[in-house]
Amino acid sequence: MKIELNDLGSHTKKVEVLIPKETVKEKAEEIYAEVLKFAQIKGFRRGKAPRHVMKLHYGDYINSELSKKLITESLDQVVKEKELVVVSTPEIDSEPPKEDEDFKFSAKFDVKPEVKLEKYKGFELEKVKSDVKDELVGETLKRFQEVYASVEDAKDADYQVQAGDYAVVDIACESHPQVNRGNITVEAGRKGVVPGVDQAVVGMKAGEEKTLEVEFPEDHFIEEMRGIKASVKVTIKNIKHREIPELNDEFAKKVRPEVQTLDDLKKVVSDELVARTEQNSKLKMERDVVDKLIEANPMEIPESMVQLQASMMLQDTSRRLSVQGMKIQDLYPDTASLRDDYMKAGERMVKQSLIIDAIAKAEGIEASDAEVDAEIGQMAGKYNMTMEQTKKAMEEQGMAENIKFGLVEKKVLDYIISNSQVKEVEKPEAKDE
Fold it and tell me: pTM for the whole thing?
């Protein structure tokens, strides 16, 4: 077999292959032998039909299989001999093979680009301090109070709606009937379907009416009302008062059965907030590291790799939405724009993977079989499956290598962070909604 390999660019190859007629004939004999096992031709016993009759009935199939076999086997040999990592489906150019002639074909494909590492150590990184202020613990406890609040009908006829209460209202608009709503629940102080109603109900009593001027935003869900000003009448039908529980030891036990006192709950909440802050800070540092790696190590990558990654991400999104009974078009009507976004994300992910892989090789960073098994074991526990079931599922879905690479990636990122200058900073103030 004669092989001629040419570069068509930084990551595109073209191989021209000449297979001698002796090999063509040998492969043809193998295919004829296989066809004879199932061929049923009238007037001949199975396996006894002469070749010219076989060719008459199965010629197209035999030629097709011969072409596939010759191309596949020789390409596999070329890739192995030349130590190529093919990342795209080869584009084949060939004529139908003839049993008594040499067979020629060419294949064009993209290969995994070589990464020339410029810099992956000594970055300047920021880490958010993990100390948690008492105010944040207090805010968390307040949210717990809201979660465990009881909601009851206000029995006092003179009771006025307060922020946080739920008001059952009728909404009427003479000029625009499409706005009309009956018996809808509005949380006082929180935006609802009609702008301003959540504030208007504060201070109102059951049976009371109020007319207000409403300006509907340009992105309102009622298309006909976008940018429109209208008079809206609000009638309170019923008020549901939210009773906030008192912060005490009994409340603490209700929130977390394992604690005994309110001070215990505060300690648990503080520890959880510290752990969450550290986790979020670590994730942000890892994202920053990836950004710096991509910036410091520029490269050209095959578009085929980006397209494949983007397609996989789109399929994953579509699959997750399908489980929830939705289609991707429901949330993202502009699929062309969505695909552009996924192409950008896919390009970043491909570059990230290539650089991480190159650093792992340069530093000898690996994931052992025991570490992979431990990771699979955690997944098995999470999904209430046995280790064997989980392993089999991972292999069937082609996820085993992904798990191993994920562990390597984590080790590489930890290595880079430990070899960078990390500065602790205060947590940025949360922006008001």
Answer: 0.70
d(CA 146, CA 190): 14
Alpha helices, DSSP H only, in 155-203? 197-200
Flag whether 201 is in a domain: yes
Residue 255 lies in a domain: no
Same domain (yes/no): 96, 156: no
**Claim to verify: residue 158 and residue 57 sit in the same structural domain:** no
Whether residues 282 and 195 share a domain: the answer is no
CB 33 within 8 A of CB 127: no
Dist CA 278 CA 409 (whole Å):
19
Rounded CA-CA distance 201/209 in Å is 9
For residue range 357-373, what is the model confidence (pLDDT) as tens digits?
Answer: 999 999 999 999 899 88
Q: What is the SS3 assignment for 326?
A: coil
Task: Indicate whether 68 pLDDT > 70.
Answer: yes
How high is the pLDDT of residue 400?
Answer: 79
Query: What tokens appear for 195 in the block?
Result: 């702008």
The CATH code of the domain that includes 62 is 3.30.70.1050
252, containing H or E segment:
helix 249-255
Number of domains, the chain = 3
Burial of residue 255 (number of CB atoms within 10 Å: 0-12, 13-18, 19+)? middle
Q: What is the pLDDT of residues 306-355, one digit of tens each?
A: 999 999 888 888 888 888 888 887 777 777 788 888 999 999 999 999 99
Question: Which of residues 243, 276, 307 is at a domain's end?
Answer: 243
Q: What is the DSSP letter of 223?
A: G
Asked, for residue 431, whether it belongs to a domain, the answer is: no
Cα separation, 75 vs 79, in Å, equals 6
Structure token pair of residue 110? 């993209």
User: What tens digit of pLDDT does each residue of 3-25 get?
Assistant: 999 999 888 999 999 999 999 99
Residue 337 falls within a domain, yes or no?
yes
Containing structural domain, residue 185 = 150-243
pLDDT band of residue 432 (cuts 50, 70, 90) is: very low
Which domain-ending residue is among 243, 277, 311? 243
